[in-house]
């Protein structure tokens, strides 16, 4: 289903979400006090998306520190729309003609968060899949490349989704209607990756799972992805995501911050090279701010070091200081 921009606005209203962007040079105000007014629509590592109220004029007061119930209503009028935000006895009204969507897409292929310990390499994949899925669902399939649509399909691949390897605690999960549902496209994609890796055993297991996608079999498959003999499949999937994301630009935070961030990244790459010279496998990941809000999180860089046990592969995470 294709959502109109008004549908997207109504979705935010239903969720009680209203986060305006401070007026800046983008919000040009004319002599009649009208201009573009932006609110945040979707913020994640793949995209920074805003709903833009065109030819907007606002009145009243909005308190972004208000902790009580905020009531939001949208009215259609002959001359356009009015968004009414009520905070106790205080009103904030935005009059506007139409809504446009403004999207800024970014490279997310080396983004990694390590909020939960254990099998972090699989949790990173779950995170990357989830943010591409959100981009597809909230903005539309047209916001994704064909490769990204394959990645997004893995949200409905229980062996690797939050059923088995959640990247965040349950309290922060946005649950699927049926989290154990297996998408045929997702299973076919994983079979494609297994075939490319030359892993005929896993390819056969995936075929069997597709024919009988029970919860029990999903959990069995999840354990297989830990096994060191199937590590190449996971590494190829990581590479696939990295290459799919590389069609988008890296975030830039200005010369000073970019230079500081590059020093950390260079240090991480040197550490990675050092480990690889010693015969070990390593991957560099980073956490970064949003361009819209450079102070949202710290810029952190990590080296993920692969470790093979007797049966399973695991990783060790080193934070680069």
Concise account of the structure shown:
The chain is of the alpha+beta class and 321 residues long.
Description:
It is globular and about 70 Å long. The chain is α+β, with helices and mostly antiparallel strands and 321 residues long. The termini are far apart. It contains eight helices and nine strands. Helix 2 runs parallel beside helix 7 (231-245), helix 4 crosses helix 7 (231-245) and helix 5 runs antiparallel to helix 6. The protein has three domains: 5-104, no CATH class; 108-250, no CATH class; 251-321, no CATH class. The model has no long low-confidence stretch (mean pLDDT 94). Strands 1, 2, 3, 4, 5 and 6 form a six-stranded antiparallel beta sheet that branches. A three-stranded antiparallel beta sheet has the order 7-8-9, covered by helices on one side.
């Amino acid at each position: 289903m294709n959502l109109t921009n008004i549908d997207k606005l109504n979705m935010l209203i239903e969720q009680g979400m209203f986060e305006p962007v401070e007026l800046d040079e983008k919000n040009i105000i004319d002599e009649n006090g009208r201009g573009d007014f932006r609110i945040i629509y979707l913020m994640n590592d793949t995209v920074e998306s805003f709903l833009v109220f065109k030819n907007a004029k606002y009145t009243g007061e909005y308190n972004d520190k208000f902790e009580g119930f905020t009531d939001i209503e949208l009215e259609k009028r002959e001359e356009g729309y009015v968004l009414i935000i009520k905070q106790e006895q205080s009103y904030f009204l935005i009059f506007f003609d139409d809504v446009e969507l403004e999207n800024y897409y970014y490279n997310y292929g080396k983004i990694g968060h390590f909020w939960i310990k254990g099998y972090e390499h699989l949790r990173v994949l779950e995170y990357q899949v989830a943010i591409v899925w959100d981009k597809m669902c909230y903005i539309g399939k047209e916001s994704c490349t064909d490769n990204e649509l394959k990645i997004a399909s893995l949200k409905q691949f229980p062996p690797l989704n939050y059923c088995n390897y959640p990247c965040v605690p349950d309290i922060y999960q946005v649950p699927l209607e049926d989290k154990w549902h297996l998408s045929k496209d997702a299973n076919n994609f994983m079979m494609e990756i297994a075939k490319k890796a030359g892993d005929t055993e896993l390819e056969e297991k995936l075929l069997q799972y597709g024919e009988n996608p029970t919860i029990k079999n999903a959990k069995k498959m999840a354990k297989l992805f830990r096994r060191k003999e199937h590590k190449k499949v996971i590494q190829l999937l990581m590479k696939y995501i990295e290459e799919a994301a590389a069609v988008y630009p890296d975030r830039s935070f200005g010369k000073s911050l970019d230079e500081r961030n590059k020093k950390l990244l260079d240090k991480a790459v040197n550490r990675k090279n050092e480990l690889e010279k010693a015969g070990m496998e390593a991957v560099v990941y980073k956490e970064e701010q949003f361009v819209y809000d450079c102070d949202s999180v710290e810029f952190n860089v990590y080296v993920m070091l692969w470790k093979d046990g007797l049966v399973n592969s695991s990783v060790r995470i080193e934070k680069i200081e």
